[in-house]
Design brief:
Blueprint (H helix, E strand, L loop, with lengths): L4 H18 L2 H10 L4 H7 L22 H14 L1 H20 L2 H14 L3 E4 L15 E7 L2 E15 L6 E8 L2 E8 L5 E3 L13 E12 L11 H6 L2 H29 L1 E2 L2 E2 L4 H7 L1 H22 L6 H25 L8
Parallel strand pairs: 1-4
Antiparallel strand pairs: 2-3, 3-7, 4-5, 6-7, 8-9
């Protein structure tokens, strides 16, 4: 699956135009100061107004069928607008991954079609207070409900932590320990016993919603078990790590360039010692050039890995992790360098 170049370019242009109109810098700064998730804007991006959600789903479910290379370009563009908004958008598609890669044909038709057509928001409920990256240590449980010797549903109990879109999602993919092993379940907003905590007050990425999600004896029907077989949850999660790590890498790339996009014009305008800072190598070769080079090195690995994913060469979990490391380290470094490059202006709102 992949978009043609013209369609991809039009998609990226539409995202930039939407952000320019709906998310000018003053609005972003105001939302950041108030630690507010612009949920209606994110819903508009994932709905009929912009339709970015269509890229993530196959044509058979009403989507556009974008490939890994297309999705990386979209994630980079979203991150250049704002990393928090990008997280709010991408959380939906992270949440849908267990269904995409592990769902039955009926589940894919049911849920992915709704996500494409209705623009629903989703959350990925894996991390727990004492089980972060170690998904095998999860404590959330799914107890079978049986009638006449047949499993008709499950009762899910436990707590999830650091969940993007946790307070606003319409659907939740929840990893829980069933009798047959770790398994994914789809839980709808409004289910009795499902609740969420107050938004986390984060140091950054403040335009995204991050919260605890609690499940207290939440009942779901048997067909909410992703794949219809217990014990497949960790395998289903492993199937997408290469892909999802690559998109986080794209976030680092986009955010890093957004920082340099502020520092570079400033360096050309700021006069010190009789000339612009952009002509002083002590400035540019420390604060601009190294980070541009590292970001573009990260891009090269992202694109190579995306092309290999699209060629179905495997899950590429290690390659995705390396791309994520290079691009996010470069993005963090570029952001810090841009603060230094802007002097006092970089340290104030």
């Amino acid at each position: 699956m992949a978009l043609d170049r013209e369609t991809l370019d039009l998609t990226l242009e539409a995202i930039r135009d939407f952000a320019k109109d709906k998310l000018p810098e003053a609005t972003i700064l105001d939302l950041d100061a108030r630690d507010e998730f612009p949920v209606e804007l994110v819903r508009a991006m994932c709905g009929a107004e912009l339709g970015v959600q269509l890229l993530f789903f196959g044509e058979e479910y009403g989507g556009m069928g974008g490939g890994s290379l297309d999705v990386y370009r979209v994630c980079e563009t979203l991150a250049r607008c704002d990393l928090g908004v990008a997280t709010g958008v991408f959380a939906t598609f992270l949440g849908s991954d267990p269904i995409v890669f592990g769902g039955t044909p009926e589940q894919k038709k049911r849920w992915l079609t709704r996500l494409a057509e209705e623009g629903l928001l989703m959350a990925y409920g894996a991390t727990e207070p004492e089980a972060g990256s170690d998904l095998g240590a999860l404590r959330t449980t799914a107890t079978r409900i049986e009638e006449d010797g047949r499993v008709v549903g499950y009762r899910i109990s436990g707590n999830k932590q650091w969940i993007s879109n946790g307070g606003f999602a319409d659907l939740y993919s929840v990893l829980a320990l069933a009798p047959g092993g770790p398994s994914w379940f789809v839980v709808e907003r409004g289910a009795p016993g499902l609740s969420w905590g107050k938004p986390e007050d984060k140091h950054g990425i403040r335009l995204s919603n991050t919260s605890e999600v609690s499940l207290a004896d939440v009942r779901v029907d048997a067909d909410a078990l992703v794949g219809g077989v217990e014990g497949q949850g960790l395998l289903q999660a492993q199937m997408v790590f290469g892909y999802t790590r690559l998109m986080v890498a794209a976030f680092g790339l986009g955010a890093g360039w957004a920082a340099l996009d502020r520092a570079i014009p400033y360096s050309a305008e700021r006069i010190q010692g009789g000339g612009p800072l952009s002509e002083k190598q002590g400035y540019t070769h420390k604060l601009i050039v190294p980070w541009a080079a590292r970001l573009e090195a990260g891009r090269s690995l992202i694109e190579e890995t995306a092309e290999r994913l699209d060629a179905e060469e495997g899950t590429l979990n290690t390659e995705g992790a390396v791309a994520k490391y290079l691009a996010t380290e470069a993005g963090n470094g570029a952001a810090d360098a841009a603060i230094q490059a802007l002097g006092g202006y970089g340290f104030t709102r």
